[in-house]
Each structure stands twice: as C-alpha cells, then as structure tokens.
Amino acid sequence: MAHVTRVFILCLMVPGLLGCARNQSSTKSGEETASARPAAMTETTPSSEALPADSTPPPHIDAAKAMDYVRQVVNFGPRYINSPGHKKAEQFLRAHLKGDDVEEDAFTMSTPAGNLPMVNFIAKFPGSQNGIVVLAGHYDTLYKRDDFVGANDAASDTGLLLEIADYLRAQKKRQGYTIWLVWLDGEEAIKQWSDTDSVYGARHLAEKWQKDGTAKNIKAFLLADMIGDKDLDIDRDQNSTPWLEDLVGQAATRLGYQSHFFQRLNAVEDDHLPFARIGVRVADLIDFSYGYNNVFWHSPQDTLDKLSPQSLQIVGDVMLETARLLPAHK
Ligand SMILES: [Zn+2]
Q: Is the pTM of this model over 0.85?
C-alpha cells in the first residue's frame, strides 16, 4: 500500500475516547481532500444482534503458521514485478495452493516502465450459500527497490491468506458464502502513486469481474494490507463501505479484539477502490501507522522483527468472522 489523503483521531465513533483535537496531514504528494464525507458515515448500520448464519465455533487461525508463511515470503527478498523474488513468491503460492481450485489471472499492464507482465492468484473455497466473499491482499513489493523486503507491506497479508487457505481447506462442507482468496499483483506504483500508476492487479481484476458478471455475485470484498504490525490498530477507512466497516467492528467485538480497531479515521487509497467503483461493497483492513509517524512504511526497516503472529491472527479471525456475519445482513 498505498496512499492516504487525511489522518485524524476519531472520537465520535469510539465511545469513551475523549478529545479530538489532533488533525494531521499524511499525504505523500501534498494534495489533500477537503471533505471528510461525514454523510457517508450515516448510512444504515447492521443490527448489533447479528448472529452468524451457522452454529460453528468462532474462527481461529494458526498464528504461528501464518507467521511462518510470512517469514518464508520475506526470505525471498524484494518481490517487485520481474524480480527473482516475485517469481519465487509466485511459485510459493502455486505450491501451497496445489490441489485447490486456483485461477491464475495473468495479464499485461501498460506502466511508466512499459508493458509489464503480472499475475493475480485466486483460490476458491465453496460454501453452502449462493454468493462470494473475497478476502484479498497484494504480494508485490516496491518497484525496483532492492533494499526493501516488505515484511508488513505486504508479506503479512500474503502469508495470512495462505494460512486462511489452510484453515478453509480443512473445513468439510463449510456453511456460509463461498470464499475466494485473492493475491493481487501490481499494487505498488511503478513510478509515482496516481490513479493510473497503482493497483494494477486490482484494476485489471475489477474490470474482468464486471465484464464476466462475477461482480454482482460478490457480497463483500475484504482487503488486508499492512496488518502484521506488533502495535496493531486497524484504521476505519472512509473509502470503504460504511455498513461493512461497522460489520468488521462487530466481528472484532464478538472476538474480543475491538481495542485493535478504529481508533483512527483515514481515507485510504488501496486495492479495494477499483472494486468499490464497480459497485462492490468493500472494507480495507489496514494499519497505516507503522512505527512512530509511520516511519517504517516503505522503508528498509519494514522487517520481520516489527511483526507479531498475534496481529496476523486478529486480522485473519476478524475477516473470517465478518464473512460469517454477512448472511444475516445482505
Ligand atoms: Zn506499499
């Protein structure tokens, strides 16, 4: 990830949090959105009495195994497009998803560095209900940055999604919606972040899903990005669908993880936006405060020692619980 237009401490959304004076711009390029779009926050929210559609126990992924996947991905080194590490990451995904229903979505995108080959991986785990919940992340790292291994951005979600695949695979005749796990390519800018130089894999896949009709079967698109930080605090994102963010908050509360969610309000540009633009309900689970003043973000200090297995667990469990709560609502 990604790009943030505005950061400020959220007060109204978090009962008991006092004071709301801090207001800080964290824009990379200097531009800023004037409006915080408060109207979007007043949309109907799901009932707090939501119950999962099935009686299975709450989700609980294997934190140590998720962390081990993250470690292995980091050890491939930088994983930008056309790098040896990217190839290793592709092979790693193929190997660990062998035997699953996997679609390799290979394509070429026009970029400031010319046409570049990319590939999204989509692993499909059927459920009992008609409809798809997408859990996604990106697996590329900063373009041509050989000093950057991207432990949090985004080996964290690459490894977490692999552990979620193991978790789903182990469930026979799973209740609820079909779950598609998506490892997106080309999230990072090739030259400088802009609408046309970012989220290449997501833009390609959203267009494809719009054309082939998949988009209208998607009940929710949940994105994970930068979710391994030991000091985990997932932002509430104004560019996500408000009621789906509420549902994420409910899922976190049901699992006892609410203290790690929504202390800050942000407007995040990330892989979810191309899907939001074609009418898919989206939520970006992102902690865009990585070290003091986000100092580790896109820096050579984005290394494994900053991450915690517990953070992977919290986000993985909350994504799965959100998917489980969905049928009660939409
Ligand atoms: Zn990034």
A: yes
